[in-house]
Amino acid sequence: MIYKCYDPELGREIARELLKIKAIKLSPEKPFTWASGWKSPIYCDNRLSLSYPKLRDRIKHAFKSLIETEYKGAEAIAGVATAGIPQGALVADLLGLPFIYVRSRTKSHGLTNQIEGKTKKGQKIVVLEDLVSTGGSSLAAVEAIRHAKMEVLGMISIFTYGFPLSRYNFEKSEVDLVYLSEYSLLLSTAISTGLIKPELLDTLNSWRDNPSEWGKHSA
Asked: What is d(CA 80, CA 194) in angstroms, rounded to the nearest whole number?
């Protein structure tokens, strides 16, 4: 099982750009609250990158290079709804591959599809996600694809927090994760550019190591 950053130097560049456009915001002293109720020193909305053509193009070509290096046998790209859909479609177009996307659940009307697009049993799929946190919703998409009798080669993402729980979940599900950037690279970039003070590094790292407990302490 692979769980790694594709290219750390590239990861720093992408982290720098995401911070620059405020797709990622760091606020350890005034934490954000996630839908789960967790308190978090970081807010990440990579969808904002789609509004910046140069960064959008950089991410698209980085994914193309990643897939051609790590998953040469890919026969289709699957985007995870909703944020993985536009990114996945861009990459599939660049690679000249079919594109499908996976809903969080089956539709309650019509054909009640969970997977949209033309599928084929045995098809080799690379799943694209914009952000991986614990991996729960991302891996649910993988299970839907596997249930449809397709083969998941691995998952790729723009960013991951690198939670220990995430790594455990991907190992348990026997799914690769290769990402463009991640939390540790983000922190080093934020410090080097003066966006955060070095003395805040300990609390920022403690959040990543145990986010649910950090949230309780901060509440």
From this structure: 34
Mark residue 197 as left, alpha or beta (left: phi above 0; alpha: psi -120 to 50; beta: remaining). beta
For residue 35, the model assigns a pLDDT of 85
Six token digits for residue 76 = 């289709």
- How many C-beta atoms lie closer than 10 Å to residue 116's C-beta? 17
At residue 112 the predicted structure's pLDDT band, cuts being 50, 70 and 90, is low
In Å, what is the CA distance from 193 to each residue of 15, 31, 46? Answer: 11, 21, 20
The predicted model scores a pTM of 0.94
How far apart (Å, rounded) are the C-alpha atoms in residues 167 and 75?
Answer: 26
For 43, the enclosing helix (H) or strand (E) is: strand 42-44
Q: Determine the distance from the C-alpha atom of residue 17 to the mean position of all C-alpha atoms in its chain, rounded to a whole number.
A: 16
Confidence of residue 109 (pLDDT cuts 50, 70, 90): low
Sign of CA dihedral 182, 136, 166, 120: negative
State the pLDDT at residue 107. Answer: 52
96 Cβ partners below 8 Å, 6+ apart? none
CA distance 101 to 52: 23
Give the chain's length: 219
